[in-house]
Write a structure and sequence with these properties.
By secondary structure, the chain is an alpha/beta fold. The protein is built from eight helices and eleven strands. It folds into two domains: 116 residues, Response regulator (Rossmann fold), CATH 3.40.50.2300; 96 residues, Arc Repressor Mutant, subunit A (Orthogonal Bundle). Helix 4 packs parallel to helix 8. The N and C termini lie far apart (41 Å).
């Protein structure tokens, strides 16, 4: 059974999310503050987290960042704010998706299932000795079947979405991939104009690869077109 962490100081919303998740047969760990949530994360095997941005003891962005220091499970942010910078901040700090309040519970459940499906697909991939799909060049090694990625021998702690972005670029090495194509391939949703989701995740990916933003060695930006990997 999948274990979902729900953190929201608005009791009515937290209770609603809990009921919706339990109706889908998920085990729910519900908390109204970040401190108790971090205690839970330290002792439970969590499959996915849903975090509110506005919490009484710590904002959701900081909570997301603390979780990302040790864990790679998907994180969905709940936010009453609609500014792009707030969304970009959450994605840059390690969130995988966001839902704006007020939200449709069916949409939230759909996003939970999408994130879990993507995560489970990579984490449970069977290792085949006869057919190992991998790329190995310039010190970068990435393997689809083991969901393992290293750079100069050092393990890169990539989230499923970050891994998917890097894998897709490696699969099309040398080609320029548009943000629209990346988004629709990795997220499986229709791309909307002015969507900064891909940009935020690419920035996070470069940060983990210790790439300079202006002249990265691997993931390069082709302005006005998209991204490519050398």
């Amino acid at each position: 059974m999948e274990h979902i962490l729900v953190v929201d100081d608005e009791k009515e919303i937290a209770d609603l999310v809990e009921v919706c998740l339990r109706n889908e047969n998920y085990e729910v760990h519900k908390f109204y503050n970040a401190t108790d949530a971090l205690t839970c994360v330290a002792c439970e095997v969590i499959s996915l987290a849903i975090l509110d941005v506005m919490l009484p003891d710590m904002n959701g962005f900081t909570l997301c960042q603390k979780i990302r220091e040790k864990h790679l499970f998907p994180i969905i942010m709940l936010t009453a704010k609609v500014e792009d910078m707030d969304k970009i901040m959450g994605l840059t700090l390690g969130a995988d998706d966001y839902v704006t309040k007020p939200f449709n519970p069916l949409e939230l459940i759909a996003r939970v299932k999408t994130q879990l499906r993507r995560c489970n697909r990579y984490n449970s991939a069977a290792i085949s000795a006869q057919e190992v799909r991998e790329h190995d060049f310039s010190g970068l090694y990435i393997c689809q079947d083991t969901h393992r990625c290293t750079l100069n021998g050092l393990e890169l702690p990539l989230t499923p979405i970050e891994f998917s972005i890097l894998w897709y670029l490696c699969e099309h090495r040398g080609a320029v991939i548009s943000s629209e194509e990346l988004f629709e391939t990795v997220w499986g949703e229709k791309y909307l104009d002015n969507n900064n989701t891909v940009m935020a995740h690419v920035a996070r990916l470069r940060e983990k690869m210790h790439e300079p933003s202006r002249k990265p060695k691997f993931v390069k930006t082709v302005w006005g077109v998209g991204y490519t990997i050398a």
